[in-house]
Amino acid sequence: MRTQVGIVGAGPAGLLLSHLLHLNGIESVVLEARSRAYVEGRIRAGVLEQPVEQLLTDAGVGTRMQAEGMAHEGVILRTEGHDHRIDFQALTGKHVMVYPQHKIVQDLIAARLAAGGQILFEAAGVSLNDVGTDAPFIVYEHDGRQKRLDCAIIAGCDGFHGISRDSIPAACRRSFDREYPFGWLGILADTPPSSEELVYASHDRGFALLSMRSPSVSRLYLQCAPDEDIAHWSDGRIWDELSLRLSCQGFTLQPGTITQKGVTPMRSFVSEPMQYGRLFLLGDAAHIVPPTGAKGLNLAAADVAVLTRALIPWFRAGETALLEAYGETCLRRVWKAQRFSWWMTSLLHRFDAHSPFERQVQRAELDYIFGSVAASTALAENYVGLPLIL
Ligand code: APR
Ligand code: PHB
C-alpha cells in the first residue's frame, strides 16, 4: 500500500493530523495498535486552550464540543482556606473549553471514517524503515498478515511509549527529563462538580484539584507518593482527604460513586530534535508535561498545526523551508509550555525536601500572584494558551 503520510498512533495528534491533511487534499493512513473501543474509551483531561478550540471548530469537528463542552472564564487558586480567582476573560479576553479528550478522539474518528479515511486499528509490530531517505516505509501486521506502507512522510504520533522517538538514531537525539517526587491519585465520580470552575488547591497536606467531565461527572486529584499503592485508598479515605485539602469557607465537597481511580507519576520530558529525515514527531511522542498546566493535549494540537502548515507547500510545490523548520518552530512553544507546567507544579505542590524558607517562598509567590494584575495576567495568558504557532 502507498500513501503520502503514514501516521503512527490514533490519539489526538494522529487523528487531528489525518483530518487536517485530508481537508488540504493530502492522503494519509493511520496505524493504531489498540482497538477503536479502547482508544475511544481512554478518559483523559480535556482543557482546551482557546486557539485549539478554534482550530477544531474551523476544521469542522467542533459541533459536539460546542454543544456539550463547558466554556470556563477563570480558575480558582485555593490556599489556606482562601480563594483567588484568576479571571481569564478580564485579564486576557479569552476562555478555555472543558471537553473530555476521549470525546475529541471520538469526534475525529467519526469525521475521518465519514470522509473515507483509513484508520487501521489493532495494527501490530509497527516498525519504521529508511526514515533518513526519501523513500521511508512502515512494516506492520494487520488481519494476521505482515504488510508494508510506503509513504513520503512518517508522522510519529504514538505517544511517550511508542516506537517513533527511538526510530531516530540515539546519537542524533538529546532528551531533557525531570521526574517529580510525587504523583496524582485521580478519581472519576458520578457526582456533580462541587464548583462551577476548576479549583487548584495548595495545602500543607498536599495539592488537590477539582475538575469535571460534565455537569454530572467529577474528576478530582490529590497529590500522593509517585509509587502510591491505590489499594491503600478506600473511597471514604479519598473523599475525606479531598475534603480536607479543598476545604474553604462556604465550600462543601459533594462525594459520590467513584467509577475509576488510579495513580499517575509526574514528569517533564522533551526529546530533541522533533524531526529526522522524513520522520516527524508530534505530541507525547516528543514531549510530556506534568498535568498541572493542562497542556498535554494542547501541545499535541499545536504540533499538528505546525506540521500541517509545513506539509501543504511541500506536497504542492516542493517548498522545504517550513518543513525544515518544523522542530525548531514546535520547540519554541513546547519549552514555554514546559516552563509553565513546571512552574504551576512547583508553585502548588508540597515538596518534602523543601526547607521552611522554601515553603515560605512558595506562600509568598502565591500571595504575590493574588495581589498583582501583572502576575495574574502572566498565569492567565499561559493557561488560556499562547498562539498556536510562535
Ligand atoms: N504502534 C501503533 N500505535 C501505537 C504504538 C505503536 N507502536 N504505540 C502507541 N500507539 C498508539 C497508542 O495506542 C495511542 O492511541 O499511539 C497513540 C498515542 O496517543 P496519545 O498517547 O494520546 O498521544 P498524543 O496523540 O500525542 O496525545 C497527547 O494524550 O496522553 C494524552 O496527556 C496526553 O493529552 C495528551 C495527549
Ligand atoms: C482534568 O480535568 O483531568 C484536568 C484538568 C486540569 C488539569 C489537569 C487535569 O490541570
Features:
390 residues, alpha+beta, FAD/NAD(P)-binding domain, eight-stranded mixed β-sheet, 12 helices, globular, binds adenosine-5-diphosphoribose, binds P-hydroxybenzoic acid
Brief synopsis:
The model has no long low-confidence stretch (mean pLDDT 97). With 390 residues, this protein is of the alpha+beta class. It has 12 helices and 19 strands.
Structure notes:
The chain has a domain at 5-50 and 97-176 and 267-350: FAD/NAD(P)-binding domain (3-Layer(bba) Sandwich), CATH 3.50.50.60. Helices cover 36% and strands 30% of the residues. It has twelve helices and 19 strands. It has helices at residues 12-23, 36-41, 50-58, 63-68, 88-92, 101-114, 235-245, 296-317, 321-324, 326-348, 356-371, 373-384, and strands at residues 2-8, 28-31, 47-48, 70-72, 74-79, 82-87, 96-98, 118-120, 124-129, 137-142, 145-156, 174-190, 199-202, 208-214, 217-224, 257-272, 275-276, 279-281, 287-288. Strands 1, 2, 8, 9, 10, 11, 17 and 18 form an eight-stranded mixed sheet that branches. The chain has an eight-stranded mixed sheet with strand order 6-5-13-14-15-12-16-19, sandwiched between helices. Strands 3-7-4 form a three-stranded antiparallel sheet. Strand 10 (137-142) and strand 11 form a beta hairpin. The chain is globular, with a radius of gyration of 21 Å. The site of P-hydroxybenzoic acid has 9 residues, from strand 14.
